[in-house]
Amino acid sequence: MTALPHPDYPRPDRDRSDAWIPLDGPWDFESADGSATITVPFAWETAASGVGRTWLERATYRRSATAPPEWGGARTFLCFGAVHHHARVLVDGRPIGEHTGGHTSFEFDVTDALPPGSTAEIRVEVAAPSDKREIAHGKQRSIPRDDYDGVAFTPTSGIWQSVWLEARGRTHVTEIHLDGESLTGFDVSGRLAGDAPAGAAVRLRVRGTGEAVELAADAAGRFAGRLGLEAPRPWSPADPHLYRVDVAVAAEGARPDRLTVTGGLRSIETDGEHLRLNGERLYVRGVLDQGYWPRSGLTAPDHDRLVADLELARDLGYNLVRKHLKLEDPRWLHRADTLGMLVWAEPPAPSRYTERSAAAFTAQLAPMVERDRNHPSIVVWGLYNEEWGLDWDIPGSPERAGAAAAAYDALRALDRSRPVVENSGWAHVKSDLVDWHYYDEDPRTWADTLASLASGDREDFPVKLGPDFVVDKSFYGSDDFPRTGVPILNSEYGAGFTSLERGWHLRWQTQEIRRHDRFNGYVYTELADVEHEMAGLVDAERRPKDIAGLDPSDVNGETVLVVNLVPAAAGADIPVPAEPFTLEAHVSHHGAALLSGRVVAAWVPGGTPSRLAEVRADHVSAPFKAEPFVLSEAVGVRVAAPQGPARLMLWALDEHDAVRARTFVDAAPIEEPNRRGARREA
Q1: Would you say 646 and 605 are in contact if contact means Cβ atoms under 8 Å apart?
Q2: What pLDDT digit, counting tens, does each position of 289-329 carry?
Q3: Are 519 and 551 in contact (CB under 8 A)?
Q4: C-alpha 258, offset from chain centre
Q5: Cα distance between residue 505 and residue 443, in whole Å
Q6: Do residues 378 and 418 lie in contact, with contact meaning Cβ atoms separated by under 8 Å?
Q7: What is the pTM of this model?
Q8: What b/e readout covers 421-438, taking b as 16+ CB neighbours within 10 angstroms?
Q9: Angle at which helices 398-414 and 355-363 pack, to 10 degrees?
Q10: Where does residue 411 rank: exposed (0-12), middle (13-18), buried (19+ CB within 10 A)?
Q11: Are the C-beta atoms of residues 542 and 499 closer than 8 Å to each other?
């Protein structure tokens, strides 16, 4: 048997792995190009699929499948993680159902068409239009082109998440939600379907504690109740404790339905201009992740590489991943739950506004929430991004502003337990967070603009929408949106052409965000390169880049140093000093308790990695005290002049001489840009 790239059960948070059959692997594939073999679940544009064909609009998948005899007395379901964009499913030529929406999961009861002990042909007819402008497609290219085609990538068409069969009871759970907001237990709700849902008993038992409750479904199959816990243990990034709850639906004379649901006790809320996780202040240290791989597109090459991106983000110092315009594989979300990584989740968007496209966008929300709401790692729901699908015109169009507000209302009606952002980046009309996307190559204008935004003196910032098209975008898309009392955070930033410049901007731009206590965090763009987009901290194969000895985990620490200077150039923050000088720095500390200590400095050779430099207290500041979430007063370090170009290492040491923060300043000759043109001969 061919090894499967993703062999684990596709829904570990809603586990039915005691009775399932994976259908990933080779399928027969027919298209306008003829017949071939395709490897599911890789999109037909990818090399990993074995097809590697772009701009193909229709294709048919076929394979046989067998329902085991031991599934007698059960119902058999055919499940799809995601198929872009429209799928029509047949079993032995018998139409079973259709689904539209390239990122949402779907399933069909195939018990009658594929009874236990039988084998049948499964046929999936897929339509994936090249013109994607009015369908939810995220960052896939379109023909005709998207408005944002310059940052769009190879399309993803066909089956691109796992396919499988599973057995369920004749009366079975079709929806279940574990709400742990109270932090003391779970408020349980769900729905039954099948032979006899009305009045059926639903039993829930917590693994490891034995605590249990039995609920009865109403006439519509709905059930709800409370599963209390005597010694509740909240979920957090520091302690990502998950509860596994065994669920059984009793059925006389028939196979009972059984599954295991995973959940966590976790609350996330806004409190004035602050974010709170389990009642404690939360500062977002996030990174944007597009979830692309060179040979396999939106589908990870294998399970290990799927979840490794989360571990990479953690090791770089981040506590949140913004999964950009993609409903990621539930196995990735489950790993975020177990790892303690926070997630900002958002669906793909269309690129043009029409009533049809707005309806297609909103249609994703209910299945998104139903699939993913049990994940405690998800702490923010995003919706539109940068007015894509709204023609970049929220402020100028009541109709488009209304579409953003309507999407917000629809999502809040589905889930009131998480903040919702209606349009990430700017032009907010109805949002629980004011987030902003700002890219700037100049350290001085970056610092000045951030200071003005933090103080409220300024509400807008420049956004380059094309080579010669720069507009000022405002935080707000409506005069009615409150100017205070809503948390403000950055959700995209970063700059630099070379890796050296990327690391330089990462260091200095992030420190300027940390300078302003009004901001609730940031999301750096981005984790990994994607095709022509080379902004990643690692390349597309997840290999590290040379960023001149910078360790991003120092930039993204719970505690960081904020230096009072505007750097001149990458590799030359300041000119080589000829005389002793005083360097001032603040401490930004987001721990739970007061931090006190000193800042020390030492010159080392240029390019020395920050983690290799020894702590030598050549130069020591006066003591500092840093209150949690309050930038400390500046402390000065008197520094001798080096003998030539060098790197000044700076450390914040606590009262026990433990290193709590690191940064550095490069001293080197600062050269004027060489703009001399070639001399023309007379």
Answers
A1: yes
A2: 999 999 999 999 999 999 999 999 999 999 999 999 999 99
A3: no
A4: 31
A5: 8
A6: yes
A7: 0.97
A8: bbbbbbbbbbbbbbbbbb
A9: 20
A10: buried
A11: no
